Amino acid sequence: MTTPLLPREHYLNIRYGILSWLLTKDHKRIALLYLISITAFFFLGGLFAVLIRLELATPQGDLVSSDTYNKMFTMHGVVMVFFFLIPSIPAVLGNFLIPMMIGAKDLAFPKLNLLSWYIYMLGGIFTLWAVVVGGVDTGWTFYTPYSTAASNTNVVATGVGVFITGFSSILTGLNFIVTIHRMRAPGLTWFRLPLFIWAHYATSLIQILGTPVIAITVLLVALERGLHIGIFDPALGGDPVLFQHLFWFYSHPAVYIMILPAMGVVSEVVACFSRKNVFGYSFVAFSSLAIAVFGFLVWAHHMFVAGMSVYAAMVFSFLSYAVAIPSAVKVFNWTATLYRGSIVWQAPLLFVFGFIGLFTIGGMTGLFLAALAIDVHVHDTYFIVAHFHYIMVGGAIMGFMAALHFWWPKMTGRMYPEGWAKFSALVIFVGFNLTFFPQFILGYLGMPRRYHAYPEEFQVLNVMSSAGATILAVGYLIPMVYFLWSLRYGPVAGPNPWGATGLEWTTQSPPLTENFPITPVVTEGAYEYNKREMRVV
Amino acid sequence: MAPQVDNLYFFLVALTAFFATLIALLVAIFAVKYRRTHAAQVGAPITGSVPLELMWSIIPFGIAMMIFAWSANVYFSISRPPDDTMEIYAVGKRWMWKFQHIDGQREINELHVPLGRPVKVTMTSEDVIHDLYLPSFRVKADVIPGRYTTLWFNATKPGEYHLFCAEYCGTKHSGMIGRVVVMEPTAYQAWLSGGGSEMSLAARGQRTFEDLACHTCHLADASGRGPSLQNVFGSQVKLSDGRTITADEGYLRESILNPQAKLVAGYQPLMPTFQGLVNEEALMGLIEYIKSLQSAAGSPGTPTGVPSGAPGTPQPQPPLTQGERKPQ
Fold it and tell me: How far apart are CA A340 and CA A353, in angstroms?
């Protein structure tokens, strides 16, 4: 086997200079702009997390003041949710891969795509400005009337940042939906689409339908703070619980904006590294849509202890169990895909194994929270904190890491160092569990979340959690180093280092600006590894 | 309640352990057993199986429904206090808890309750949303400004237990904590009587009632400009817009602060708002006073709801029928 050479011309070297990036309409370059931006926000959010865990190593609130601590967990949540997790896989890998996977030259609206990055950055700058001029302390949930009447921090600036960024999310979703409908290569029918595309289609629906609601909601909060209109504050005749309904009507589906794309990644990686069709393709595809639809019907399970009627609570509990089924179906199908596969333990697959394990625990603990009687006890405790970190970090970020490793050779033309990648997958898995598993126990023992100081009996578990966070931080720093290293020193990957199916692997790495020299014609399903082998033989 | 919640919890822990282990084992076994042995090897040509899909959709759904029914059943008992509860009022305020016992005792960040008696706490907030969380009793409820919420528990072991605020409320959120002291009933009675010369909550409410001149309109015999408050608590009230509602604590509170919102049928909207004139604790006194105006034997004004013989509690003024009072 000859060592492949980098192609002479590709999207990275076609033009140079800062303007060639800031004014690019190439979806791949925009994806890299997003990658740099969200990585910066990820490390900023991570820095807040480090400070939180340092503070919680001792029961006394002794490292920072209560106000500072409250700002730390607020900004950790705001930055991670709105500026990292929601754009992470869609805006980076969706942007890069959707046109390539469907055999298109670009997204349907390249200028809109660039605009959405600028909108994202504008929202990010507003939020960073709010951080720099003193921060915000409402929690990322902005609950009223605390956020409208009591807090004297930069609620409006942060809210405006979230409001603006929402438009970026809407435009990206719109772009994806139109692209998937209109720009598929000849022969690429819906049921030949990679499951990554199905997952992003479902995600885009949520982005378009859900995001306007959070925009309206934070706008109302800002108006109430500024003009004292009585929407949420009971002192002005408003209803504080109305805010929670509006907030969660978006923010629960937003969880699926974070996890669905990761599920799409898992399907691709499992198929590639077991060289097999994804088991139950159509069930996996439709379960994404089912999650997107049912995800809109369960918002009030965040409010079981907020004075809701018994029967309303039962309806939302029932629906929450219903939405768990499509996720379970996916996990079973991925597992079944491995059966009689040709499995090779590459780093992306290890991250996916991590995803499957952690997402299973995260999902199963969701059943605890949908159980009304248990939710009354563990709501607003560390049990919740552990649960959603298993979904968002154990699920979404594991998926993001798997995707970055899997498509890194396509994006950069070079391989990452495999040994280091496996090592970091292990470190992240161990660090993650050590950080968050003790929090389940803390929650059941009754430690409320967002506590700056806590009773001494909780210290042992908190120290374990802080120790785990240290390991986790190292686990995230290692890939940062070797990815940068690989840009220059990584072995040249060639067009298809994994032997994967999928149109993105049929073209050179890094691809041309127009992706494909000639538009491909599709004649088979997405994961026909068997047919491929037959041809080779 | 705690044992029932714990049973369900440990069942779910076992279920989670079972499924997590199942998935982890299958992944591990497949990943080892089907390792690629030569470079050109591909997986078996398997695309799926409808019976398997149905199996792993329907069985989890069945399990989920079972958990749903089980937990909803327990939740029902968590939400519905028994009839013979002892009532306590609570006000959350940044960053303290204020409790008022019916007998008149008031305490801050401590809640004394007797052993073996169901206790119902009726709560509201003076500022932002708080949440009264008693982890040992597996209960919590948001404490929301502008409305009443309740929780109840039954302590079965004497001792001291954590009391937390579980809804983030600002700077000293983690300092808005206290303790529940569960006492033997006799010790609790002794504790109740140790508080000096406090009036009962209903008696304090009656004083507020008079200070605010409520009695000038709300006469006992329905001849006043406002409806009589005798026996009104818990009754069905016909409203001027045709609806009928139950006069509970929330309705009474709203009708004091915003009288026009749910006007009783047959009365003019004459009553001024008392928003800002009466604080949450005084409101609770007023409501407790109105609740005491239950005339079981037809003698109007006898506060049967007030345990007037509680040791050490000064007798409330023998309530006069409101008709006898001079208008202020």
Answer: 17
Given pLDDT bands bounded at 50, 70 and 90, which one contains residue B314? very low
Residue with tokens 């298809």: A496
Q: CB-based contact (8 Å) between B150 and chain A? A: no
At the top level of CATH, the class of B86-193 is: mainly beta
- Chain B residues close to A381, C-beta within 8 Å: 133, 135, 166
Q: Shortest CB distance from A361 goes to which of B16, B41, B165?
A: B16
* Common-topology check for domains B86-193 and B201-304: no
**Cβ(A66)–Cβ(B174) below 8 Å:** yes
8 Å CB contact between A133 and A154: yes
Q: What is the per-residue pLDDT for B299? A: 41
Asked if pLDDT for residue B237 goes beyond 80, the answer is yes
Calpha distance A345→B19 (Å, rounded): 23
- B209 close to B215: Cβ distance less than 8 angstroms: yes
Q: In whole angstroms, what is the distance from residue A410 CA to residue A403 CA? A: 11
Q: In what order do the strands lie in the sheet with B118-125?
A: B106-108, B96-101, B86-93, B118-125, B149-154
How many CB atoms sit inside 10 A of residue A248's CB?
Answer: 21
> If you search the block for the tokens 């019907």, which residue do you land on?
A297
Chain B partners within 8 Å of A332 (Cβ): 52, 56
Residue A466: CB partners within 8 Å, gap ≥ 6? A53, A54, A56, A57, A435
Per the CB < 8 Å rule, is A276 touching B46?
A: yes
HSE of B22 in the Cβ direction (CA atoms, 13 Å)? 12
At which residue do the structure tokens 């986790």 appear? A472
Interface touch B61/A446, C-beta < 8 Å: no
| B57–A329 CB contact, under 8 Å | yes
Nearest CB to A341 within list B34, B67, B165 = B34
Decide: helix, strand or coil at residue A144. Answer: coil
Among the partner-chain residues B36, B65, B174, the one whose CB lies closest to the CB of A452 is B174
Which CA distances in Å does B46 have to A272, A476, A535, B144?
14, 36, 18, 56
**Of B216, B182, B192, which Cα lies nearest the Cα of B113?**
B182
What digits encode the pLDDT tens for the residues A424-459?
A: 999 999 999 999 999 999 999 999 999 999 999 999
- Which residues does A488 contact at the CB level (< 8 Å), separation at least 6? none
- Which residue has tokens 């435009």? A171
Beta-strand (E) ranges in B144-209? 149-154, 159-165, 178-183
The fold of B201-304 is: Cytochrome Bc1 Complex; Chain D, domain 2 (1.10.760)
Q: Which residues of B touch A325 (CB under 8 A)?
A: 57, 60-61, 64
pLDDT digits (tens, 9 = 90+) for A346-379: 999 999 999 999 999 999 999 999 999 999 999 9
Euclidean distance between CA atoms A207 and A296, whole angstroms: 11
For B121, counting Cβ atoms within 10 Å of its Cβ (0-12 exposed, 13-18 middle, 19+ buried), the class is buried
Look at residues A475, A39, A509, A501 and name the one whose alpha carbon lies nearest to residue A31.
A39
> What 8-state DSSP symbol labels residue A278?
P
Q: Tell me which residue in A137, A150, A365 faces B16 most closely, judged by beta carbons.
A: A365
Question: Is A454 within 8 Å of B174 when comparing Cβ atoms?
Answer: yes
Amino acid at B223: S
The answer to whether residues B46 and A276 touch, using CB atoms and an 8 Å cutoff, is yes
Residues A461, A469 contacting (CB under 8 angstroms) = no
Structural domains in chain A plus CATH codes: 22-536 (1.20.210.10)
Cβ–Cβ below 8 Å for A324 and B41: no
Query: CA-CA distance, A33 to A21, in Å (whole number)?
Result: 8
B67 burial level (CB within 10 Å; 0-12, 13-18, 19+): buried
Q: Do A453 and B26 touch (CB under 8 A)?
A: no
Amino acid at A86: I
